């Protein structure tokens, strides 16, 4: 996939070569990957791993065309961004951040800073893997979506409506009443079961009042309601047969137990910190939905984007104190507390009838465990995995097919490199093992065409002398 160029022709949207770039990092894998991209594209890059203030100031005294602050900690990234702007005001600056509030504040405070949201960078790839594997990415626009087909062609970019994406590619069987009841929590099940039991006792009392005591239906209903609320029984019951009196006594004792159970369940639903509801927007969907395991920044943004597209979604988080849990509740996203690799939980979430399952937690091993458990419960389910550049996911993928893998490190690193070199891709993605970029003019470019060629030597330094200036790092 991508736009090919003729021999001697400049690659499309290619950055200017010969630039001097500084990467300030506390994530070695992400910084190394970004530095390799910058070096391949014909510029000099110097990496500073967790530098102190003096080291950073000394390095920024030399020629610098752009600075990238690469960190998974928003506070660390914010500190380095402000220090960099203080030392070299006006220099091209790219900062990776997760939190949108912090990103907006940095963009407002530092006008020459381009904030690269790690979450927004990978969500288009996750969306495409969850909704339609024909597309490499699904990039939201003002009124719809832009999709890039995995197979390149004369028109790889397709405009899609949100309604078309919300419709499942294949019909999913609808769950019945049993499936709905199984999806409820313990207190909700107690509430529903006790309420159904009370209704059953009421119906039997009305039926027996009409058939045995020969009461009019409204009298039978009134007397049955009095017995149900423990206000009294029908006066005609005193002359009823013995078996009716025995049945009436047992039914009143049953009502006493069911009423206590119903009251306890109702109080828990009204006063408890409930993440799901029995009915409504926060109820657990039972078919055609997407299960998002891991409610961090990535999981929350993916769930919110799916909800905006009209796709039913349920999130799973094992930590009840996670920072994004209250945010999901405010967005009416149902959240189930538990371990995503639990087979009983997966059955409760109707994984067999789901549209896809996305394991997007920060722990790669936990994501693999979720995928393996899902394969055992639903062998043909579409599974999407978040991988942060570790070799464990790649090794597991080579052993057996566990799902579509979203390589966060590779995507974010290419986005950082392209942005700090002066290009502004709308989205970066991986298609057919090629790293590609979608630009605002809807051109799709294979970033491999930007490579400067094998005749250039590696120009990346790590704490040593800058090959372009000869200045030592320390």
TrEMBL record:
Keywords on record: Membrane, Transmembrane, Transmembrane helix
Annotated region described as Disordered, given as residue ranges: 455-474
InterPro entries assigned to the protein according to its UniProt record, in alphabetical order: NAD(P)-bd_dom_sf, RCK_N, Trk_Ktr_HKT_K-transport
Transmembrane segments: 190-213, 242-267
Entries under Pfam families matching the protein: TrkA_N
Position of the signal peptide: none
Domain RCK N-terminal: 290-389
Single GO BP term: potassium ion transport
PANTHER family linked to this entry: POTASSIUM CHANNEL PROTEIN 2-RELATED-RELATED, VOLTAGE-GATED POTASSIUM CHANNEL KCH
Protein name, entry field: Portal protein
Organism of derivation: Streptomyces pluripotens
């Amino acid at each position: 996939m991508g736009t090919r160029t003729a021999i001697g022709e400049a690659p499309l949207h290619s950055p200017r070569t010969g630039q001097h770039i500084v990467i300030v990092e506390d994530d070695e894998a992400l910084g190394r990957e970004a530095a390799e991209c910058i070096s391949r594209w014909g510029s000099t890059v110097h990496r500073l791993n967790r530098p102190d203030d003096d080291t950073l100031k000394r390095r920024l005294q030399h020629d610098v065309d752009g600075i990238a602050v690469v960190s998974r900690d928003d506070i660390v990234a914010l500190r380095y961004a402000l220090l960099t702007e203080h030392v070299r005001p006006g220099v091209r600056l790219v900062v990776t951040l997760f939190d949108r509030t912090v990103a907006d504040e940095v963009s407002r405070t530092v006008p020459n800073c381009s904030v690269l949201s790690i979450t927004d960078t990978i969500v288009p790839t996750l969306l495409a893997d969850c909704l339609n594997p024909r597309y490499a990415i699904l990039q939201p626009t003002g009124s719809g979506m832009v999709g890039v087909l995995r197979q390149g062609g004369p028109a790889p970019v397709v405009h899609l409506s949100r309604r078309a994406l919300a419709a499942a590619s294949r019909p999913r069987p609808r769950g019945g009443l049993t499936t709905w009841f199984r999806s409820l929590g313990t207190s909700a099940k107690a509430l529903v079961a006790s309420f159904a039991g009370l209704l059953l006792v009421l119906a039997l009392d009305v039926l027996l009042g009409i058939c045995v005591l020969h009461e009019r239906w409204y009298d039978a209903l009134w007397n049955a309601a009095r017995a149900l609320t423990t206000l009294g029984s029908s006066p005609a019951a005193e002359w009823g047969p013995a078996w009716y009196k025995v049945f009436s006594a047992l039914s009143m004792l049953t009502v006493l137990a069911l009423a206590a159970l119903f009251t306890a369940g109702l109080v828990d639903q009204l006063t408890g910190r409930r993440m799901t509801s029995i009915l409504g927007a926060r109820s657990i969907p039972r078919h055609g939905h997407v299960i998002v395991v891991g409610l961090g920044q990535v999981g929350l943004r993916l769930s919110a984007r799916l909800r905006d597209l009209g796709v039913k979604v349920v999130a799973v988080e094992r930590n009840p104190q996670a920072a994004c849990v209250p945010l999901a509740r405010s967005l009416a996203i149902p959240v189930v507390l538990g371990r995503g690799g639990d087979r009983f939980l997966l059955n409760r979430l109707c994984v067999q009838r789901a549209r896809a399952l996305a394991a997007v937690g920060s722990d790669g091993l936990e994501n693999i465990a979720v995928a393996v458990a899902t394969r055992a419960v639903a062998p043909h389910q579409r599974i999407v995995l978040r991988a942060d550049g570790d070799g464990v996911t790649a090794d597991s993928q080579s052993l057996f097919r566990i799902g579509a893998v979203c390589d966060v490190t590779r995507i974010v690193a290419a986005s950082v490199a392209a942005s700090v070199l002066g290009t502004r891709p709308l989205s970066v993605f991986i298609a057919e093992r090629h790293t590609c970029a979608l630009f605002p003019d809807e051109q799709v470019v294979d970033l491999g065409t930007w490579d400067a060629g094998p005749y250039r030597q590696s120009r990346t330094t790590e704490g040593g002398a800058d090959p372009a200036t000869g200045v030592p790092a320390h």
